[in-house]
Amino acid sequence: MQTSEFGKSKSLWRTLTEGSWHDAFDGLGINLLLTSNPAIQYTVFDQLKLRLLKRNQNEGDKGSSPVALSAFSAFMLGAISKTIATILTYPAIRCKIMIQAAESAEGKDKKARPSKTRKSIPQVALWIMKGEGPLGFFKGLRAQILKTVLSSALLLMIKEKINATTWVLILAVQKSLLLTRASSRRLKGA
């Protein structure tokens, strides 16, 4: 559906009736593999955040605990973590793009299309390695980083600010409830 012209894609029902279950779930494996990208991103972000907060705590007051990152720090850590995740998963992203575009193995003739045989990750990886060498797995990486890093960095910055604000609100409500209970007990006892 993603690679066909607007309005010309097959529905799932049509794919199943004209093709097979394999046709309906073609590309599922590579997409499952690519779910590692956000997992890597959030793991790296959390680890960098912990280190930064520990360092800030060691430099600052030993008795206080740092609660949240600054907006700038969250933005920078978000950008760094997304860049790392993208670099690590980009070879799989490139294979997915090659499979979807179904370009010829040599890539010399732009009009040539391979036969309807299914392309697998190992096939595409071999084509890239033979035709472009190891750096071929990273062709287009800059564009991918530009496309994804800004939005991810903004997302994590906003998430951190919302998280910090939510905790402040929860603590304020909790304190208010405790004060209300304490004052009502005093009034009942008086």
From TrEMBL:
One of its GO terms (biological process) is fatty acid beta-oxidation. Coiled coil: none annotated. GO terms for cellular component: peroxisomal membrane. Its main location: membrane. The keyword Transmembrane applies. The keyword Transmembrane helix applies. It is found in: Peroxisome membrane. Keywords: Membrane, Peroxisome, Repeat, Transmembrane, Transmembrane helix, Transport. SUPFAM superfamilies: Mitochondrial carrier. It is a multi-pass membrane protein. One of its GO terms (molecular function) is ADP transmembrane transporter activity. It comes from the Eukaryota. It holds the Pfam family Mito_carr. Solcar repeats lie at residues 69-165. Belongs to the mitochondrial carrier (TC 2.A.29) family. This is Peroxisomal adenine nucleotide carrier 1-like.
